[in-house]
Amino acid sequence: MEKTDGIGNENGSTEEKQSFKDGSICGYNSLHHLLSANLKPQLYQEVSRLLLGLNCGKALETIVPPESAKALSSKHDFDLQAFKFSADKELLREPRVVRVGLIQNCIALPTTAPFSDQKKAIFEKLGPIIDAAGASGVNILCLQEAWMMPFAFCTREERWCEFAEPVNGESTQFLQEFALKYNMVIISSILERDINHGETLWNTAVIIGNHGNIIGKHRKNHIPRVGDFNESTYYMEGNTGHPVFETAYGKIAVNICYGRHHPLNWLAFGLNGAEIVFNPSATVGELSEPMWPIEARNAAIANSYFVGSINRVGTEIFPNPFTSGDGKPPHPDFGHFYGSSHFSAPDASCTPSLSRYKDGLMISDMDLNLCRQLKDKWGFRMTARYELYADTLASYLKPDFEPQVISDPLLHKKSF
Ligand SMILES: NC(=O)NCCC(=O)O
């Protein structure tokens, strides 16, 4: 249900336009809602074909979530969308269909509330959304980056480090119960405190198996130094490589937030055999929104795997204004985290996005056979010429590296 007619309404008043500060797109939940509300059905179909691609030659199918999940989404006011990526029927392999979920959410209490209350309120907010995923039969569920806290890394204040937890801490224990209850793999991105290594901090994804066990962890490889993303004040670049976790439902990996700007990061997870790579994120409109629908989709295409992209929602106001050395006046917030979580598939199709301003659960079935089918069709792995790039990289890393540039000999000749 949309809030206003947005600019689609010719009489759109100033008040209506003001309401766009809520994070909506001219009053609409998402770009796709804006288009479907304003284009004739035939035009919308054609725009969708170009915008979202085709899966097995058809528009992506939707699936109907169970009534219990729909009831939870109405009661707790979160967006709920469900789709299905198919693959071609094979003669020798059975389809390998898994149901995957992504959760996006805003924080639950102001950042000025006691930390324990903030964390508890986020747990309480997430419970019904995870229940909806469980009721829908989701096999693998991924939460957003540092879901258990406000994204306070803009502030550079040390007190936010108190939110950090060991891999087997409170947040993991909270999710382990759901994993066990719903026979679900859960990927939980937390601020980690590594007790055994001098209590250092990391930005870490914990992989919880469908028996409630901890399968392993991965630490964020690339730390942003852009805009207000002052994360390097808090933790260092990860030391866990590019692990792929073999779970009951397929081989999965996690490329945490800013790592999505690094094509080699995506590649490495692919080389290790990932079939689904999750990108739990926290990013804001002004900085990255034009990149958001492109990077994950490109990674899915180039590496012949599925990608699940998740971004938090809302504007988080911090008690003390901060600056980031970019000449901007002190400000108390990052800007708007624009949600828009979605899935991308190796055949270049993708789902529409979840809301730009509301909590949400995005579900999709995906037949993992599609990964190999796309490798066979496009041959990106076979044509990759890795040895050329290995040579270039090895040479680039040497201190005496010189770029391979052949200059036009006439370029520096004096003309008479
Ligand atoms: N959390 C995080 O790494 N954000 C960086 C900004 C971006 O990559 O869009």
UniProtKB/TrEMBL annotation:
<keyword id="KW-0378">Hydrolase</keyword>
<dbReference type="GO" id="GO:0003837">
    <property type="term" value="F:beta-ureidopropionase activity"/>
</dbReference>
<protein>
    <recommendedName>
        <fullName>Beta-ureidopropionase</fullName>
        <ecNumber>3.5.1.6</ecNumber>
    </recommendedName>
</protein>
<dbReference type="InterPro" id="IPR050345">
    <property type="entry name" value="Aliph_Amidase/BUP"/>
</dbReference>
<dbReference type="Pfam" id="PF00795">
    <property type="entry name" value="CN_hydrolase"/>
</dbReference>
<feature type="domain" description="CN hydrolase">
    <location>
        <begin position="98"/>
        <end position="368"/>
    </location>
</feature>
<dbReference type="InterPro" id="IPR036526">
    <property type="entry name" value="C-N_Hydrolase_sf"/>
</dbReference>
<comment type="pathway">
    <text>Amino-acid biosynthesis; beta-alanine biosynthesis.</text>
</comment>
<dbReference type="InterPro" id="IPR003010">
    <property type="entry name" value="C-N_Hydrolase"/>
</dbReference>
<dbReference type="GO" id="GO:0033396">
    <property type="term" value="P:beta-alanine biosynthetic process via 3-ureidopropionate"/>
</dbReference>
<comment type="similarity">
    <text>Belongs to the carbon-nitrogen hydrolase superfamily. BUP family.</text>
</comment>
